[in-house]
Amino acid sequence: AQAPLASPAKLGFTAVPFSVADRVIVPDGYSAEVLYAWGDAVGLKGNSPAFRADASNSAAEQAAQAGMHHDGMAFFPLPQGSRASKHGLLAINHEYTDDGLLHGDGMKTWSGEKVKKAQAAVGVSVIEVEDAGKGRGWRVVRPSKYARRITANTPIGIGGPARGHALMKTEADPLGVEILGTLNNCANGKTPWGTYLTCEENFDGYFVNESGTLSDNEKRYGIKNKDAGYKWAWEDFRFDLQINPNEANRFGWVVEIDPYDPKSRPVKRTALGRFKHEGATVTLAPDGRAVVYMGDDQRFEYIYKFVSKGRYQAGNAKANSRLLDEGTLYVARFDADGSGQWLPLVHGQNGVDASRGFADQGEVVIKARLAADVVGATKMDRPEWIAVNPKAPGEVYCTLTNNAERGGEGKPGVDAANPRADNKFGHIIRWHEAGGNAAATAFKWDLFALAGRPDAKSDAHKGALKGDAFGSPDGLAFDAQGVLWVQTDVSTSTVNMKEYAGMGNNQMLAVVPQTGEFRRFLTGPSGCEITGISFTPDSRTLFVNIQHPGEPENERSDPAKPKAISSWPDGDAGSRPRSATVVIRKLDGGVIGS
Ligand code: FEO
Ligand code: CA
Ligand code: CA
Ligand code: CA
């Protein structure tokens, strides 16, 4: 039984309505200001190129500027006592590129320089930020010794069972110990020892194997024999799997970065498994082992967790830096009676062995999806972010954004944990780890919320919600008060259309779990998704990312396609929309949401 909770937090703001305005709208009494947009200088010493509105910045300049498509992010206070909530670092993911916007003439022509610019526009930014006070608000500190861009070409180490594995070796890296770059950096995590986790999601789209014979590994991860649209392999043969067959095995990982040490080498933590990682939410078990919750965001994919072998030791940076290299990777099975099991993906157990094609643990983590198939995990409706309730030990929430293919012809049908066919609005599932212990192998689960709209034509889309309607939940995080924040990512092809007609632009809501009542806090500009959530330690500043306003802008370079729908944040007619980090504050300086 859970300990009784302290009185629940109270939401003190008035909900904002649905909106189609091309701007960020927050409740009365709050401000929202742009801090760091695509193309803004990251703040490298002696190298701060200004953004050129015609997208004529070079690849080299892009590598010193904010990348595109801001996604997961975390705030790291600089250890200065009472200033901890006024000064710190932000690590920010740049998920992917919109090449129609990234280059002056879009994709009309193609070149090695364009590929280099795209490779410089993904990855991670580390920026130094401070609250300048006296009404001046937050700003990026430039130059900063902490400023850093990690791109698709930054050298990155390998830790865990796949380090040095035969499937990780390439001509350029015959030992299988160093990878160039990280890409498709979606959601994130933050460790208790002060490092940032960036998660590689849809890596398959950057690779192509034109041979026509795809391996089971390639097929299971969505690699195709035709280019998916980024056209990197055309100019950079590293992404051509006929030339470099193992290169795709080197992506799809969680990467650990020490933002406080700009010289430190990021490391791909392969013990956490290779899949289309959404986020990596870290908590500690009562005995100090690190537990990492992770979603694999694709239809009918799984929820995973990693439990470290070692224990977190406060202040022992060296020991903590090895925690994510050794431990047990599990995948979740949700049973119809409301119980669930974490099934270990360990070589030699439950059929995960040479008879099923796994030579060793390295091959198990590289082919984690195939191993999870063997043990019989539950196929979910696109697992996105996972959040651990700071007020209730072992209580965990996961957004399942949508899955219109559920129950379709030749597709898996409904099950207790994914109860709706044609699940266009998604849901939020919750589980309680046995004994409130994050390292437990058994849990009890329930459906926290079925998203939807009460006036829907189809029962499958009505949902079961208290408060404000929404669909396609994605970003998810608790604040220190125990309020759960939910961000939506209704896709560009349905936002405010079809089943979502009248529901406006993507949004962010707050819900106190004890009441289950959702309240809309923010609406974004046209064509964007809302993603990335990080609070300062005092909960009085909230950082949020606006991703891909105006999508699909890549159609801008095709005169037959519709015109740009957003000019956010610059606002002048025809200006290129830019993904950006936004700072949200309460005008009276109070706790966000209170
Ligand atoms: Fe990159 Fe699943 O969102
Ligand atoms: Ca997402
Ligand atoms: Ca999403
Ligand atoms: Ca996205």
Automatic annotation (TrEMBL):
SUPFAM superfamilies associated with the record: Calcium-dependent phosphotriesterase (SSF63829)
Coiled coil region boundaries: none
Skewed-composition ranges (Basic and acidic residues): 550-561
Region (Disordered): 548-581
InterPro entries listed in its UniProt record: PhoX, TAT_signal
PANTHER family: DUF839 DOMAIN-CONTAINING PROTEIN, SLR8030 PROTEIN
Pfam families for the chain: PhoX
Name of the protein in its database record: PhoX family phosphatase
Top-rank taxon: Bacteria
